Amino acid sequence: MSKRKNPSGNNTLEKKVNLKEVKGSNEAIPWWPVVAAVLITFLCFTSALNNKFVNWDDDRNFYENPLVQHIDEKNFWENTKTIFSTGVIGNYNPLPIWTFAIEKRMFGFDKPYYWHLNNVLLHLICVFLAYRIALFLGIGWRGALLTALLFGIHPMRVESVAWVTERKDVLFGAFYLGALLQYIKYKHDQKSSRWIWMTLLFTLSLFSKIQAVSLPLSMMAVDYFMDKKWDIKSILNKIPFLLLSLAFGLYGIHTLKEFGSLATVEDTTNFNFIQRLFVGAFSFTLYLIKLILPFRMSPLYPYPNSFPWYFYPSMLIAPAVLYTLYITYKKEYKAFFFGLAFFIVNIVFLLQILGAGQGYLADRFTYIAYLGLFFMAGFYIDRYLSENSAKSNMVYGVAGVYLFVFACMTFQQNKIWENSATLWTHVLKYYKQTTLPYGNRANYYRDNKMYKEALADYNATISMKDAQPQAYNSRARLYFDIAKNQDTLLLALNDYNKAIQYDPKDGEFRVNRGATYARLGDIEKAIEDFNEGLKLKPDHAVGYLNRSIMYQNTGRIDLALQDIEQYLKLNPYNADLWYEKGRALRLLGKSQEAIGAYTEALKYKNNNTGLFYYERSRTYTELNKMNEAKADLQQAISFGFDKIEPAYRQQFGI
To answer: d(Cα 224, Cα 333) in Å, to the nearest integer?
Structure first.
């Protein structure tokens, strides 16, 4: 590639890339480097493939999300429509949720290997695209290989790849980089058809993650690198992309506000807007440091309890960066300006100045942004090797050692995401005075019947801060689960009282306390709590279930039926509740309607399928439909149901 000295005395790449050469007709640009980059990246992430799901948003995004959890052939398109018209925990990223629904249909929740594999495969696509982008921007294959390897195996990639929920990173990244590559190709060949591909890929990227709104700014950075200027035409042709970004950006902010995820300057950290600017500057500085020295990587970087003094000096990064941009622009250090500008436009919206999220920093936020800095490294290493071939062995050696260290770190970092216990234990390695990791690890221990460990973590959480209604609620659930006597139930009751004291408007706490009263034998107090809890939280399905049991136990079958129907509106996939609806209808003398309820229960087969057939058989008998009754009885027997009266068998000669 030819070079010339520019007026300011700096070497710049002058010749544009020949598309035919990049396509492979020129032997100087081989394919093996990108194959090597993809293979090495895959090897580094093999340690993530056997990880499980974790209780940090995986639950709410898919394995407890009804739209994913209960997806089937009949409701697939209806659920798809709902997925694309709603957000999940304040985030509008329907395309990743839709891929989860497909994976649920194909693999179920008991094979997380395939879910992790899909994340890794999407990351490999991004590595391939990073290599091609570097080539089309004029870097030789050695620099492009370095760019791709850094993008692939840098330890800060792990969170985006090893965490299934962050499917949105690798998915939006694949479409985002695909759109960017099409734009760079358009700059070479001016084919108008590339705009169709750009628009399609950009739209899919926006449906994957709101972070994609930065693409028009990345395209402008490309304009400068390839043309050394911006003109009216280059700005006008990005208006459709800017409008798409604006529309998705505003809708994303709306969903965050609607869910309550978007903190304001009066948020729980008590940091005002000016202080949040310092938070952003500090985060920006750490991202630059972690690029070279990825240290203390954590899935969570919690806000400090008070504003620390060391956040203030970080604001010095702002004039330093602005001055660097000015100098590199003026002296036409194109690669430096482009790389830094690309990083800035892709990280600036994620600096937590508005405070969405539970941490002021996140490794995953660098997934696309770091490409600009990786490109910078690849560009200058490639140019150095071109001008100093005698020192190539030294450069290869240093780069090889550096990359090997990164590869080892990434391989080990993946293991942090093995399960919820390893995840939160790692966070506690650095943040021992933070309640969230103790609480989430305790929930994992409780769900896996490690009650002693769970209780220790709940106690640690409450000892750090008493006014934590959710912590008391969680510990009460533990006591409730393990209760074998009245004393343990009273411990649960005391904790529920504490939770309600600190947050009297949370209906879940009332419903849970009602269940405790029920086990203590105080039915009226239980119903009173269920009533109050459902007023506060009318979409709490378990509340209707629990109250229906109380009504059945006290002979109020009509009220029990109403609650069962309310439950089924919220969760229509519970076979046992359809069965209970059938029983209630039979008790009310509505046998024909009971047949419909039992039939619905049989759509969702479970361990009680034999019982469902038997009860429907008895109901058919009441309706004098003996052929149907006999057929159902035979089905009940085939499913192993053995609690059948001998006289009933003899009635059908079975």
So the answer is: 11
**Cα(282)–Cα(288) distance, integer angstroms:** 10
Answer for the pair 576, 603: CB distance below 8 angstroms, yes or no.
no
Taking residues 168-181, report their average pLDDT.
97
Q: Please give the single-letter amino acid code of residue 388.
A: N
654/642 Cα distance (integer angstroms): 13
Widest Cα–Cα separation across the chain: 104
Q: Identify the CA nearest to 219 among candidates 237, 203, 197, 232.
A: 237
In whole angstroms, give the CA distance from residue 62 to residue 59: 6
Give the whole-angstrom CA distance, residue 523 versus residue 548: 12
Tokens of 314: 């970080």
Angle, alpha carbons 251-93-53 (nearest 5°): 145
Answer for the pair 619, 602: CB distance below 8 angstroms, yes or no. no
341-385 pLDDT tens trace: 999 999 999 887 766 567 899 999 999 999 999 999 999 999 999
Instruction: State the amino acid at position 70 in one-letter form.
Output: H
**Contact predicate 345/217, CB 8 Å:** yes
How many residues can be counted in the chain?
654
Which is more confidently placed, 591 or 352?
591
Mean pLDDT of all residues in the chain? 91
Task: Give SS3 for 360.
Answer: strand
